[in-house]
C-alpha cells in the first residue's frame, strides 16, 4: 500500500477550520481507494509570529523538504502586516521548492449560484497558469527620505528569461495535454514599458512551437472585462505572478464564489514537494464562526491526490462535491445560500464519496 507523507499547515483564520475538513475527506477517500496518508502538523501562522517573531522556525523549509506534498490553509491575519506574513511563510515555500507553476482551475460547478446573465447556457471551464516565483512579487526596490516630503519608493519587477519561458511553456504543454484549443496571455505591454513587451516576445516565440494551439493575448484590463462578459471562451490563461493572482480571484468570482476555488503550487520536475491551498485567504470576518465553506480546501486536496498519482481518488472527491451541491436536500454554508456549518457540508461531501 502506498503511504504519502503530507505536511499540514492550517495557518490563519478559516484555514484552521477548512484544513481539518479537508483532512477528514482525505482520510475517508484514502480508506476507499486503499492508500495511506501520514500527516505532520505545523502551527506556523500569524499567531506564532505574535509570540515568537517568526511565521515559521528557521529550519521550516528543511522540515518540509522530505514531504510528498504540503497541504496549506490560509496565511494572513489582522495584527501582522500582510507583507510580513506572506513573505515569511507562503512565498519562501513557493520559492525554496521552486513551485513556479500556480495552477488554478475556474469551473462553474452545478449547484453554485452564478450571477451571470444566461449562466445556465455557459460552460465555464478553464485554467489559470500563474507564474509563482518572480515578476511583480519582488523585494527589489526601496524607500528613501522616509517621513520627509522628498520620500519616495521604488518597486521593481523581475522577469528572467528562464522564469518567463518555463511558465509559458508549461501553459502550452498543459493545453496540449488537456486537449485544449487556446492559450491566452495576460499582458499590459502598452503601459508597462520593459517587462510586458518582453513577456509578449517570449510568448510569441513559444507559440511558434505549438502551431495547433491558438495563441492570443489581451491587456489585463480588457481581459478582466472578457472574464465577466464571455468567460466561456477561455481554455488556458497564462499570466505573471500579480496578473495571475488577480485573475484567479476574478475567474471564480465570476462563477459565483471564490470559496470553492482550489490551487496547486507545483514544482513540475518533482525535485521538491508541491503545495496545495485554496485560492481564498484567511477571511478574518467569518473566522471562528464555523461557517467557512470548505470546498476550496477539499478541491485542493483532490488536486494534491491527482499530483500524487491517485487520479481515481481525486475524481471521487470532485464527484462527491458536485453531488453534495446538487442534492435536493443540500446542506451548504451561508455563502452558497444555506445555513449549514463547515462540518455539515463536509459530512455531506463525505457521505457522497463512492
Ligand atoms: N490560501 C491562500 C492564501 O492564504 N492566500 C493569501 C494571499 O493573499 N495570497 C497571495 C498569493 O497567493 O500570492
Automatic annotation (TrEMBL):
Outline the extent of the Isopropylmalate dehydrogenase-like domain: 5-349
Task: Extract the Gene3D superfamilies matched here.
Answer: Isopropylmalate Dehydrogenase
Cofactor(s) needed, names only, are:
Mn(2+); Mg(2+)
Give a yes or no for keyword Ribosomal protein in this entry: no
Q: Which domain of life is it from?
A: Bacteria
What start-end ranges are recorded for coiled-coil regions in this protein? none
Write out the entry's keywords from A to Z.
Manganese, Metal-binding, NAD, Oxidoreductase
Q: What's the Enzyme Commission number for this chain?
A: 1.1.1.83
Read off the Pfam families from this record: Iso_dh
Any single GO molecular-function term of the entry would be: NAD binding
Its UniProt entry gives the catalysed reaction(s) as: (R)-malate + NAD(+) = pyruvate + CO2 + NADH
Q: Which PANTHER family match?
A: D-MALATE DEHYDROGENASE [DECARBOXYLATING] (PTHR43275:SF1)
UniProt similarity note: Belongs to the isocitrate and isopropylmalate dehydrogenases family.
Q: What is this protein called?
A: D-malate dehydrogenase (decarboxylating)
What is the protein's species of origin? Advenella incenata
